[in-house]
Design goal:
The chain is an alpha/beta fold and 349 residues long. It folds into two domains: 10-141, Roll (Aminopeptidase i, Domain 2); 144-348, Aminopeptidase, CATH 3.40.630.10. Helices cover 27% and strands 27% of the residues. The protein has nine helices and 17 strands. It has helices at residues 85-88, 93-96, 112-124, 160-175, 204-213, 216-224, 271-283, 303-311, 334-348; strands at 2-5, 10-21, 24-32, 45-54, 60-66, 100-103, 132-141, 146-148, 154-157, 184-187, 227-231, 234-235, 258-260, 289-291, 314-319, 321-323, 330-333. The protein has a six-stranded mixed sheet with strand order 10-1-11-15-13-14, sandwiched between helices. Strands 5-4-7-2-3-6 form a six-stranded antiparallel sheet, with helices on one face. A five-stranded mixed sheet has the order 8-9-17-16-12. The protein starts with a strand and ends with a helix. Bound molecules: cobalt (II) ion (CO). The site of cobalt (II) ion has 7 residues, from helix 4.
């Protein structure tokens, strides 16, 4: 089994978001997860998400929409108005983050739900009779992903944590042998603790596995014979901030997936599961690296320990090394995607 989380830190539109200030029409936003906020300024932002409305027969409908175009921006304050900006500018999310969408006169500003309705019509060619009742709409960077570097050594993109792992996990599952029982589980809400109906700490996975296995005895046997590779990106050692790593455990980009270990079980890896993974990498001719956080710093975590404790499955936490985790644009090594694909395919086979 391979597990990964799908969510990433971002800005979510509030339920009553409209603001008209100094002629600028803005939307109030909440920060989802542990976002690195500085990189959200001066970006060409777009919006996407889900809307819920009642149709002509008064039935509730839920549909996805995506504006795609850059329709909003959060401009920085000029350095001339804040000479200390490079030393100590801090961001107040309530005050400084509402993106600007347009300029309007008093009384001429649009209604946000009306705007969503228009966008739905543009995308789906259908008119919503009645009103958009509710929505989950998020801002995102409209700049597409790119291969970066003279030799295209890097991938720069939004949400690499953790869609990179979800995507490679899916490709490996599709390439895997049909003779082995394989499963890919992708869960939401890891960035906010995984406690939700669609998070890793929900009953979703145990319930699916129980129904696949049949009776309880078969379910227990299935789990004892299974292994979970929990895949989530790791922190590569950054040349400009190398002191943030233990020098012996600073993974390099493009040098293969990283085994994450933590004595306090922030990662589910133990010597049995890591030995098995190291062996798999050897068989797949994939280089492998180690990460342990500095002993004087707090360690992150992921869905590995949560899933391991929920269903009692042997688990390892791994992931490709990246930079700028939780920025609006993150960086990974282009070769590491191939390394990860090769070892996960080996695992599924
Ligand atoms: Co992650």
């Amino acid at each position: 089994m391979v597990g990964a989380h799908t969510d990433s830190p971002c800005l979510k539109v509030k339920p009553q978001p409209e603001m008209l200030r100094h002629s600028f029409w803005q939307l109030g936003v909440e920060v989802y997860g542990g976002a690195l906020l500085n990189p959200w300024f001066d970006r060409d932002l777009s919006m996407a998400g889900r809307i819920s409305y009642s149709d002509a027969d008064d039935q509730l409908q839920h549909q996805l929409i995506n504006f795609q175009q850059p329709i909003a921006i959060i401009p920085s304050l000029a350095i001339h108005l804040d000479r200390e900006a490079n030393q100590n500018r801090s961001i107040n999310p309530q005050q400084h983050l509402p993106p600007v969408l347009l300029q309007a006169e008093e009384g001429g500003a649009p209604d946000f739900r009306g705007l969503l309705q228009q966008q739905f019509h543009r995308e789906h060619g259908q008119t919503i009779i009645g009103k958009v009742l509710d929505y989950d709409i998020y801002f995102y960077d409209s700049q597409p992903a790119a291969l970066v570097g003279i030799n295209e050594d890097f991938i720069a993109a939004a949400r690499l944590d953790n869609l990179l792992s979800c995507y490679i996990g899916l490709q490996a599952l599709l390439a895997g042998s049909a003779d082995t029982a394989s499963l890919l589980v992708c869960t939401d809400h890891e960035e906010v603790g995984s406690v939700s109906a669609s998070g890793a700490q929900s009953t979703f996975l145990p319930s699916v596995l129980q129904r696949l296995a049949g009776d309880n005895e078969s379910y227990q046997r299935l789990l004892q014979h299974s292994q979970l590779i929990s895949v989530d990106n790791a922190h590569g050692i950054h040349p400009n901030y190398a002191d943030r790593h233990d020098a012996q455990h600073g993974p390099l980009l493009n040098k293969g997936p990283v085994i994450k270990t933590n004595a306090n079980q922030r990662y589910a890896t133990n010597s049995e599961t890591s030995a098995r993974f190291r062996q798999l990498c050897e068989q797949a001719k994939v280089p492998v690296q180690d990460f342990v956080v500095r002993s004087d710093m707090a360690c992150g975590s992921t869905i590995g320990p949560i899933t391991a404790s929920l269903i009692g499955i042997k688990t390892i936490d791994i992931g490709v090394p990246t930079f700028a985790m939780h920025s609006i644009r993150e960086l990974a090594g282009s070769q590491d995607t191939v390394h990860l694909y090769n070892v996960l395919t080996k695992f599924f086979n």
